């Protein structure tokens, strides 16, 4: 259960109609067999979301992309772009 790549990319977007002052999107790329790493990542996101001391008015979104084990080339631009797209869609929809 090896974490291949985690892309903790923080984009703070100002969207006028979103209830939060800003949106922080955190994306991760895991190998398919790294289920425990995926669970830990989701628990960490939940802890951040529930902690008012860290985030008073920010909204956290996250995405997880699973890739084939031992195929690092699968984590190139198209997969990373799939992490970025939900952030842009959330902002444009608002």
Report on the architecture of this protein.
With 94 residues, the protein is α+β, with helices and mostly antiparallel strands. The radius of gyration is 14 Å and the shape is flat. The relative contact order is 0.27. The protein has a three-stranded mixed sheet with strand order 1-2-3, with helices on both faces. The protein has a single domain, classed as Rossmann fold (3-Layer(aba) Sandwich). The protein contains two helices and three strands; from the N terminus they run ββαβα. The protein has helices spanning 35-50, 77-93; strands at residues 12-13, 22-31, 58-67.
In short, what is this structure?
With 94 residues, the protein is α+β, with helices and mostly antiparallel strands.
**Head-to-tail CA distance between termini:** 38 Å
Mean pLDDT: 69
Report low-confidence residues grouped into runs of 5 or more. Answer: 1-18
**Major sheet summary line:** 3 strands, mixed
- Report helical residue fraction: 25-40%
Rg from alpha-carbon coordinates = 14 Å
Looking at CATH, the homologous superfamily is Response regulator
Task: Write down the CATH topology.
Answer: Rossmann fold
- β-sheet strand percentage: 15-25%
Index terms:
single chain; 94 residues; alpha+beta; Rossmann fold; three-stranded mixed β-sheet; 2 helices; 3 strands; 35% helix; disordered N terminus
């Amino acid at each position: 259960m090896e974490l291949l790549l985690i892309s903790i990319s923080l984009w703070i977007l100002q969207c006028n109609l979103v209830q939060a002052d800003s949106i922080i999107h955190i994306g991760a790329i895991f190998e398919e067999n790294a289920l425990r790493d995926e669970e830990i990542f989701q628990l960490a996101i939940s802890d951040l979301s529930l902690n008012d001391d860290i985030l008073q008015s920010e909204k956290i979104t996250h995405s997880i992309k699973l890739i084939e084990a031992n195929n690092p080339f699968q984590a190139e631009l198209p997969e990373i772009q799939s992490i970025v797209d939900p952030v842009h869609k959330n902002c444009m929809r608002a």
